[in-house]
């Protein structure tokens, strides 16, 4: 019988892995992709939808390319349980599915319990995170549109590690860009649990002091402890309360729920440890975990570009192991994260990581990568084309 690879999660990691297992096996391995959403909605570029310079249609791609062009069987369902010993998956619809290899890529779960009052405020649609692109992206945009001029938008940033290190700072720029032309008396407050801006810090701070002078205020060491949605108040572990018109609380994160439920989150009960050579789980054989769910080596951000890169290494390893071939002993990963500071000017950070066998980890290649000197329009063009290319690589 043909080998079957099941993939849980059709995001940047899972969709790429599904396609590349098909490609690298010359279409000899059956691939089933389990994903509840009807279409892929990208987090990268979603901050521009919040800022208003792009529409949700620009960041939405259907899943049919994977089926039509690559013969991936896309099952619109949710995995509710995995038995890693018997190698079976249970779906929300009740069906059970067996696999030879499982690729687990469910992204992140938001830890609402870490912030008192957040769960009910989020369920009522009052306090949003918009850290998974889709309906919540639009709902946050509507909150900003409804806010009167002179109001305050506050975003809280969780401690590292979290999905997309520069994401909150890019979002602050996008909201300020919108305020600047639509509600110029309004303010953006960044309340950061970290000691400082952890990604592209000098570049962002220059933009805040320059084109958004007097509009964006940055406060480090603000770890949010509680939210009172009715009063519009955020409470912190140490610092004074903050009142704002729109509260955008991005809580701490952990591996996607199904990864935790399947017993794969062996690092602090939060993230999934893997063998970086193959992305095979540290605790379950024939289960490969990738994307935001994994415990990352130092200097490896949780990004869509990285998830796409993990997926190719994992897909090659899965195909090799099923065929009885040796795995690639020297995989490489790349990353580029672009951030839009307004509707067209962009900054980037890039890195290249190679596997170091002696230490069983990835390390950045000396002299590789880099950082923009300053925001510029040319990188705005690169950023937009990066998005078109990675969506095509992942889904078409
Ligand atoms: P995801 O892409 O989230 O995919 C996980 C998928 O699994 C989802 O489709 C989900 O529906 C599915 N799933 C979950 N549970 C189950 C289950 N039980 N059964 C079946 N399916 C399930 N990265 C960049 O590289 N560049 C950027 O510019 C960038 N900008 C960003 C901006 C913002 C505002 C945010 C929030 C993130 C940004 N990122 C960016 C980060 C990027 O979005 C993530 O790192 C990336 O999505 C991780 O890929 P993933 O496959 O691990 O998870």
Automatic annotation (TrEMBL):
Q: Does the keyword RNA-binding apply?
A: no
Keyword Endoplasmic reticulum on entry: no
- MF annotations from Gene Ontology: flavin adenine dinucleotide binding; oxidoreductase activity
SUPFAM superfamilies the UniProt entry points to: FAD/NAD(P)-binding domain, FAD/NAD-linked reductases, dimerisation (C-terminal) domain
For this UniProt record, give its keywords in alphabetical order, as a comma-separated list: FAD, Flavoprotein, Signal
Q: Where is the Sulfide dehydrogenase [flavocytochrome c] flavoprotein chain central domain?
A: 137-251
**Residues of the FAD/NAD(P)-binding domain:** 4-119
Task: Write down the Pfam families for this protein, in alphabetical order.
Answer: FCSD-flav_bind (PF09242), FCSD_central (PF21706), Pyr_redox_2 (PF07992)
Domain Flavocytochrome c sulphide dehydrogenase flavin-binding residue range list: 329-395
User: InterPro entries of this UniProt entry?
Assistant: FAD/NAD-bd_sf, FAD/NAD-binding_dom, FAD/NAD-linked_Rdtase_dimer_sf, FCSD_central, FlavoCytC_S_DH_flav-bd, FlavoCytC_S_DH_flav-bd_sf, SQRD, TAT_signal
| Protein name (record) | Flavocytochrome C
Q: Which organism is it from?
A: Ramlibacter lithotrophicus
């Amino acid at each position: 019988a043909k080998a079957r690879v099941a993939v849980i999660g059709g995001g940047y990691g899972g969709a790429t892995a599904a396609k590349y297992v098909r490609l690298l096996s010359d279409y000899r391995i059956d691939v089933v992709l389990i994903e509840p959403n009807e279409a892929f909605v990208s987090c990268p570029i979603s901050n521009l939808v919040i800022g208003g310079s792009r529409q949700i249609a620009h960041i939405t791609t259907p899943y049919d390319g994977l089926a039509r062009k690559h013969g991936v069987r896309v099952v619109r369902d949710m995995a509710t349980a995995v038995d890693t010993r018997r190698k079976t998956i249970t779906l929300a619809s009740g069906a059970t599915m067996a696999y030879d290899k499982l690729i687990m890529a469910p992204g992140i779960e938001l830890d609402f319990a870490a912030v008192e009052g957040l769960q009910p405020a989020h369920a009522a649609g009052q306090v949003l995170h918009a850290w998974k692109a889709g309906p919540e992206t639009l709902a946050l945009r509507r909150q900003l549109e409804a806010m009167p001029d002179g109001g305050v938008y506050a975003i809280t940033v969780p401690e590292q590690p979290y999905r997309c290190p520069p994401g909150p700072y890019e979002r602050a720029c996008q909201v300020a860009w919108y305020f600047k032309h639509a509600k110029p008396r309004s303010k953006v407050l960044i309340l950061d649990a970290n000691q400082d801006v952890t990604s592209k810090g000098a570049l962002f701070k220059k933009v805040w002091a320059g084109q958004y002078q007097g509009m964006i205020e940055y406060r480090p060491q603000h770890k949010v402890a509680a939210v009172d949605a009715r009063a519009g108040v955020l409470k912190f572990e140490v610092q004074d309360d903050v009142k704002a018109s729109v509260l955008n609380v991005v809580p701490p994160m952990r591996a996607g729920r199904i990864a935790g439920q399947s017993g794969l989150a062996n690092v602090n009960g939060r993230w999934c440890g893997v063998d970086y050579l193959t992305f095979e789980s540290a605790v379950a054989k024939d289960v490969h975990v990738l994307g935001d769910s994994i415990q990352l080596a130092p200097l490896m951000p949780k990004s869509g570009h990285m998830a796409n890169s993990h997926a190719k290494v994992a897909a090659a390893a899965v195909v090799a192991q099923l065929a009885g071939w040796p795995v690639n002993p020297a995989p490489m990963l790349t990353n580029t994260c672009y951030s839009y500071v307004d509707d067209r000017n962009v900054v980037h950070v890039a890195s290249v990581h190679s596997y170091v066998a002696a230490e069983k980890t990835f390390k950045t290649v000396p002299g590789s990568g880099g950082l923009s000197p300053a925001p510029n329009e040319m990188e705005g063009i690169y950023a937009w084309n990066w998005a078109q290319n990675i969506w095509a690589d992942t889904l078409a």
